[in-house]
Write a structure and sequence with these properties.
This protein is mainly beta and 138 residues long. The protein has one helix at 2-19; strands at residues 30-37, 41-43, 52-61, 71-76, 80-83, 89-90, 93-97, 103-109, 115-123, 126-135.
C-alpha cells in the first residue's frame, strides 16, 4: 500500500517537473546564399537533353553554416530539369539535397521550345528565381 502511494507521488512529481519544461524546438530558416547559372542562353538542338545549363545553389542557415541534406526545390515553367550524375528527369520540378558544403546542383535543359525559362529555387525560408533564354538555332 505504502509502495503504491509512493509510486503515485513520484509519478505526479515527474509530470509536474516535465510539464514545467519550457524548452522549445527551434527551426532555423535557410537562406539562398548564391545561385550560379552556367549558361543564361542556350540554343535548341532537337531531341538533345545534353544542351542546357548547370544550376548551382549554395544554402546557408541563420548562423551562416552550410546545412547538409537540406531539401532544395527547383521548378521551371519551360524546359526540363535533371539531377546531375543521375538519370532522374523531371518535366517541371525536381528536389535535390545539399551536400556537405550546402550546395545543391541540377541540370536545366531545353525541350525544343524557344522562350524565356524561369527557374524558381526554394528552401524552407527563402525563394529565388533565375532565367535562362532558349533560342532557335541560327
Amino acid at each position: 500500500m505504502k509502495l503504491t502511494k509512493l509510486l503515485v507521488i513520484f509519478g505526479l512529481l515527474a509530470i509536474v517537473i516535465l510539464g514545467c519544461d519550457n524548452r522549445s524546438l527551434e527551426i532555423k530558416e535557410n537562406i539562398i546564399d548564391n545561385v550560379y547559372v552556367e549558361n543564361d542562353t542556350i540554343e535548341i538542338v532537337a531531341g538533345n537533353t545534353q544542351n542546357g545549363s548547370e544550376i548551382v545553389v549554395t544554402i546557408v542557415d541563420e548562423d551562416g553554416s552550410h546545412p547538409v541534406g537540406e531539401n532544395v526545390r527547383f521548378r521551371t515553367d519551360l524546359g526540363g530539369l535533371m539531377i546531375i550524375g543521375n538519370k532522374e528527369i523531371s518535366e517541371i520540378q525536381i528536389d535535390e539535397e545539399t551536400d556537405e558544403n550546402g550546395i545543391a546542383k541540377v541540370y536545366f535543359y531545353e525541350k525544343d521550345i524557344p522562350g524565356l525559362a524561369e527557374i524558381e529555387i526554394s528552401v524552407f525560408g527563402d525563394k529565388e528565381t533565375v532565367q535562362v533564354m532558349i533560342i532557335e538555332p541560327e
